Amino acid sequence: MTVDVEYARRGDISIADQAIGDGLVDIIFGAGLVSHLDLVWADPYATAFLRELASIGRLLLFDKPGTGLSDPVAGVPTVQQRADDFLAVLDAAGSKRAVVIGYPEASAPAILLAATHPERVEGLIAMSGMARLTPDEDYIPGTEHRFEPFWAMIRHCTDHWGDGSMLHTLSPYARENLVYRRLAPNVERACASPGMARVMIKAMWDYDVTAAVDAIDVPTLVIHRTGDIVPVEGSRWIADKIAGAKMLELPGAEHMCYFNGDDILAGIEEFVGGSAPRGPISRKLVTVLYTDIVESTVRAVEMGDERWSTLLAAHHAAVRDQVERHDGTLIKTMGDGVLATFDRPTLAVRCALAVSRHAGDECIQVRAGVHAGECEVTDDDISGVAAHIGSRIMALAGPGEVLVSATVRDLAFGSGVEFDPRGEHELKGVPGKWSVHAVVADHREDQRPASRATPEQAALTPSPIVTMSAADRALVQVANRAPRLSRFTLRTLSRRPGSKPA
């Protein structure tokens, strides 16, 4: 089976993608670090699995930036950028809505996408996923011992990428089968360079979408094998938190869905075929930004009505401009205050900083509060507890200060925005205590192709083609030019694990 590789664009970054089949439903499959759109079709079991998936609906595949055939990138990608990868591929394929599969670390950006853009998500499937990698008292407490083998694998792969240990650890079949055991190092090195793998692993370690899970309002299927080295407790937590989610817990320890994946495919087919048509989207995860002018009444008295009205109109126009520049939506102005919403927490924070800087030019000071949570969204307003929390956080801010909730801090992790803790506070009308953080700096480092980075930065995350051996390159060339021969060879030399190879 030969499938053409095309390229979607996220900014200046090219993302290798493929479209297979022509079903009525679009299915986008986000894979993990071991991803290569040429090599995958050289594997008989992967080919069989993906062909079956493509029989359910039009299948969209992609190598995330930094892996496989996509551009190498400089800098650590955020979970938001990973969610944007899905959107870029959907847009390039002309897909308005799709069933989104996140597997395995791609489950975190898939969750974030479902929470922030439910209008683009027909259904969510999280496979062997987690909302984050580190348990605490609020997230699957008491399971640290279950994570130790997984953490040990991650630490080893960080230092020894390319020795095949990730595939050997994740897949009992690949570990036991002589052919796959020998090919695993080549596959790892073809999917990512050691430097790129370290960056990707760090990004995965920093993911935290626990707040986004609570806001998901799309049909959801969670799939996990009980004995998977990726602890099943993470998937159970996700399924428990999402209203109406179905947990498909399967026997066995095989992490790689391509091997012995018939039960996974059956679950996906039932989910895609049985999802009821969805009504209009009204609730979603949004980031709210509140601002107001400090001591506005005093300034109004000092300036007089006419001058104050002129200043206020100019300020509102400047805020509106900044909201548009940061891809936000201005919901309303309230006297000297403003309410705006954003899909991305980082953009809300940067908009708040820009508004504060512009206000200084006008010889006024503003305070700002930012929070991310589930809101009821209408054409011209929002409602919900999250909106009230944003307002209460703003009220705590001092002149020129931007305060955010812990949720915003977590979702903005890795963006270059620096936060300083401001303690826990009781917010009027909102139960419990809330951790608040001040924005103290923005070391903005937008992800960009390695070709546009400095030589020092580019050297840290080279393309895999730079670091592959001659044998690695030969493997990729054979896979690209003769996928059928590659599948025949692997099928002949490998024993059957349970799935039918192509």
From TrEMBL:
Region (Disordered): 444-465
InterPro entries the UniProt entry points to: A/G_cyclase, AB_hydrolase, AB_hydrolase_fold, Nucleotide_cyclase
GO terms assigned for molecular function: adenylate cyclase activity
Every Guanylate cyclase domain range: 287-394
PROSITE patterns: GUANYLATE_CYCLASE_2 (PS50125)
Record GO biological process: cyclic nucleotide biosynthetic process; intracellular signal transduction
Name of the protein described by the UniProt record: Class 3 adenylate cyclase
Cited Pfam families: Guanylate_cyc
